[in-house]
Design goal:
By secondary structure, the protein is α+β, with helices and mostly antiparallel strands. It has two domains: about 110 residues, Alpha-Beta Plaits (2-Layer Sandwich); about 110 residues, Alpha-Beta Plaits. The chain contains four helices and ten strands. The strands form two sheets. Strands 1, 2, 3, 4, 5, 8, 9 and 10 form an eight-stranded mixed sheet that branches. A two-stranded antiparallel sheet has the order 6-7. Strand 8 and strand 9 form a beta hairpin. About 5% of the residues have low confidence.
Amino acid sequence: MVIKFRIGGRLRYLSHAETLRLFERACVRAGINLQYSQGFNPHPRMSLPLPRPVGVASDDELLTLKVRRDPFFVAQDTSNEARETSDELRIKNALSAQLPEGCELISVDFAGSRTSFQPRSATYVLSVRQEYLDRDLTGRIQDLLASETLLVRRKMDEEGSVIKNMDVRGFLSSIDVDRADIVVECGLTAAGSIRVPEILELLGLDETKLASPIKRTSVKWQDV
């Protein structure tokens, strides 16, 4: 099953693991029969294929999970097509009722058991305070786009004891200015991507210069 949802407000501070726990608890309260892994410490078979940076809101999150198809979700005496539609709607309604404010379901769809999703690009919107929308910022954007390499110092461990110089130019697909918003599209590959703090650093911005929280507005996926 594939669930698309929005997340914002205080919930944007949830970590990747905390977001998974939020949905696990909501599914249990909604009576949705999740499939669990085997072994001594079974856990629900659910995944967030593209972890959301802590503190970033999102309009386009994707969660995959495996459920057991029991009579709770099966409408009786209907065609297969009608039954599928009914199952999706019932799951969406049941789950929506258990999610806290700040998390909104967009859609619930059934997918093949072998379907997986690979993110190819993500778009972030940075709303900049008016006093910082100046020629220095637009000039910096032009310089970034004209550069062949963009080196950042990336912490490779939680303690910050391992630092590596990374060229992130190949991950920076585009930067556009739309009134007070800076729209950044980032490429995503198996080798990784540019991180949100690195985008801010390259633009010479920090959260004090932003008018609202950073938002991930869209993600392009490839089904494999």
